[in-house]
Specification:
Elements: H1 4-27, E1 31-36, E2 42-47, H2 49-72, H3 76-81, H4 83-111, H5 121-137, H6 153-157, H7 159-186, H8 189-218
Antiparallel strand pairs: 1-2
């Protein structure tokens, strides 16, 4: 699988994050707030290197994981045919990490000047919801593989079940992403995380059941074709 293009893009994202950390380090003291209470007051201080290095190193590790997975896939031809959805998930995940990194640096710069940190929970969940919408839209383009997609015993054992499951799951998964975005704007903070997790778990269970039902209809005797 040719991963040169997403690899170049991810390298650029990681490099940009590292450069941002180096620039921020010039304006920040060596010791910065690392934890805050509910009122936004610092409760723990530590080395500046920890928050500045965390997300760039995480992004680098994630890049290595995506590269290794692309080479380890047993159904390489199918993953090659799914290269656009694969690259979308890869770069999308890195962009979310980059957004987290921006928030960390903004928080550090703000708090050392006495300002209260901004709660990023709704923003990050909205970004995750948007990525789910995009991933859902691409589901019909996925071919059977072990790395991405709706991977159940029934989809992985039968190509027809894989294709039908991913085609029918397109709209429900997109609606899941939209529901998460709606929850970001509508749900009270106290129940936001629980609401999002409920949406994700319910969708996951529904997709597993869907794959089994489609497999059973296509293989009433319990044997894959």
């Amino acid at each position: 699988m040719n991963i040169r293009r997403p690899l170049v893009v991810s390298a650029g994202i990681v490099l940009a994050m590292a450069c941002l950390s180096l620039t921020a380090a010039y304006f920040l003291p060596g010791t910065v707030p690392l934890r805050f209470n509910a009122s936004g007051m610092p409760t723990q201080y530590g080395s500046l290197a920890v928050p500045l290095a965390l997300m760039p190193l995480t992004a680098l590790a994630l890049t290595v994981i995506f590269v290794m997975l692309s080479r380890a896939e047993p159904r390489r031809d199918n993953l090659i045919a799914s290269r656009v959805p694969y690259a979308t998930r890869w770069i999308g995940a890195l962009l979310i990490l980059a957004a987290v990194h921006l928030w960390i640096i903004y928080t550090l710069l703000a708090t050392v000047r006495g300002a209260a940190p901004v709660d990023p929970e709704r923003l990050f969940m909205a970004l995750a919801g948007a990525l789910i919408v995009i991933a859902g839209h691409q589901l019909p383009r996925l071919r059977s593989n072990f790395m991405i997609g709706i991977r159940t015993p029934w989809t992985l054992s039968d190509d027809r079940t894989w294709q039908r499951t991913h085609r029918l799951a397109r709209v429900p998964v997109m609606l899941t992403g939209l529901a998460i975005i709606a929850a970001v704007f509508a749900a009270p903070k106290a129940i936001l995380l629980a609401t999002v997790m409920t949406i994700l778990i319910a969708t996951g269970i529904a997709l597993v059941v869907l794959s089994y039902v489609l497999w059973h209809r296509g293989n009433p005797n319990g044997h894959s074709v």
